[in-house]
Design a protein that fits this description.
4CMD/NDH-1_regulator (chains A, B, C, D, E, F), 2 domains, CMD-like (chains A, B, C, D, E, F), 7 helices, homohexamer, mainly alpha, elongated
Chain lengths: ~130, ~130, ~130, ~130, ~130, ~130
């Protein structure tokens, strides 16, 4: 039982909208392993932050993707690339974000990011051109 | 004389729109010191990247600000906070970006970023609430 | 009024124990600027995290200090160095943490960290030897 | 023959206590490839640093794990997670460190770290709850 | 057709000298996916930067390898290790760079880097001793 | 009395060659504060690493400067910029290193680095053009 049921439920809603059932599996694994961690992740990371006003999901995914690329935290890249597409960022917008990062984060991390983008787009049968 | 006059001029245009004359002074200092560096910065960093289609200036400033915060590259924060406001991101949108980073980059860097935001807003006599 | 009064109050308690009134001034500045940010910082960053069981304040400050040094987030270094001393880490333990970081984070960031340690110790009139 | 036999031997002792024979295999590979590198790693990284007084192995593993997570240096995560458990950090303490990092390093790197924790715990047949 | 054919061709020349046909395959993949990204990478990252005077290819690979190791951008490590060897850095020079990074970037990233070095050297049937 | 007098003395020699008396003051401050830290810094960071064969001081400063820029560890930038010039890297070589980093680390950190370069060159009354 979450220590913050309202935001936990908001978080599950956000996750459903952003990634649907496949994405909830990752959370499930954390939930079984150590519920408090899944609790924080879902209620704070998604429930509280993503459901705030002022910035919509598309803007938030621009921010999250940039944060991941800059940190080199590519393990969450696939999750958020799918989320970004699902909430309405176009393939072109995502690729252009990576190009922007080539200048503002450097070409190495942009190349790593682009490879992840290519994999996700291939899985989804979409192109950016 | 730039090695790429078309994009150099685009870059100066972009800089004028984004920060106006005060911001061009930083570029000036680089220009006097080592023209090639200013050349790359203006023609590639601003001319080529910022004038690309698909993502507008506001989206690009969301990306650049996030990249700066995540890298801890706070020396360029003031420049881009002013740019962000000038191109139409609202004070609230900027603050909410920092709050988003608290979860996706961690509270330490978000706190550093928020301090810079507070300074710039104070200089410009604006509030975020 | 906090969106999470229980954890907000826990956070204020933690902050009082860790840094006392001087430290609360930084939070105050955030509070006046954008209450939601101070709210998250106090209730999540300090209230929820620091008051969790299993790891005590001294262990948590070992973790936070290491995270700050590794990120190069030195703007929060003074705050947490004071907190570390206040919760019972000895001057020697703090210096030895920095030496450990020399090997595991590299000498440059360890040197930056040590300079901050020296400043705080000087302000408090303590030595590590 | 090490350039610093005393600390080299201390380092081998530390490694034996921390990870035992399996862990020494990684060092062995470096030793065969370029002895000086293994020499520095064993004598300085483990011999000199880990055997210093003031901080015990458990505190040092809190620091090292935090440094790895913050840097995103996950290739050494498995080694140090095993070391942490072997020197007496409890499964719960390790998981709580990762939760602490969610706030102080951000959720992305905490998620990556937690995945590594789950893998190591599974291999060792332990749980954190 | 590149937006900057002169530097694009310079970039292809540089790539041929540095990595030959195998390395051009990675660029090819980017080219098919989103030509503008390959364009920037080849014409700016390799054409403009690598063909500049003052620093030769060997010095530039010292810089690039260090940047990759420090960022933990190991996905490009293999490419640049091969490039470094091809442009004349000796195996010993490359290994000594990693040892230098052990002190200036920390042992964790140096260990990750050394593993990549070992793999590339093994593929090429060379040793550093 | 150093725990490693041979390498400590090598380190002092290296420091004298690289920065002379002014630079030794920083080490002095560490020495007074906590001798073991100065000991490690001088004997390992400078004595053991910088006096190794295969890479000369100029190559090592290319590596160290790149590591500092990439980490954003600008507090040691002035020290190493002076060292780089003293050991024979030309002003142009140093500026070109920063330009190389614009592509491989990103423009933000390159801009921060260039500002430090400009300050040191101004203090020394030299130009890069």
């Amino acid at each position: 039982m979450s220590r913050d049921p309202v935001n936990y439920n908001k978080g599950i809603e956000v996750l459903n909208e952003m990634v649907g059932a496949p994405g909830l599996q990752a959370i499930d694994a954390f939930q079984k392993f150590y519920p408090d961690f899944a609790d924080f992740l879902v209620s704070f990371g998604f429930g509280e932050i993503y459901s705030r006003e002022t910035l919509d999901y598309k803007q938030r995914e621009l921010i999250t993707l940039t944060a991941l690329i800059t940190q080199g935290a590519f393990e969450q890249m696939t999750f958020h690339l799918n989320a970004a597409l699902n909430v309405g960022l176009t393939p072109k917008e995502i690729v252009e974000l990576v190009i922007h990062c080539a200048a503002y984060v450097g070409f190495p991390k942009a190349c790593s990011a682009m490879t992840h983008v290519m994999n996700v787009f291939e899985q989804r049968g979409i192109t950016a051109i």
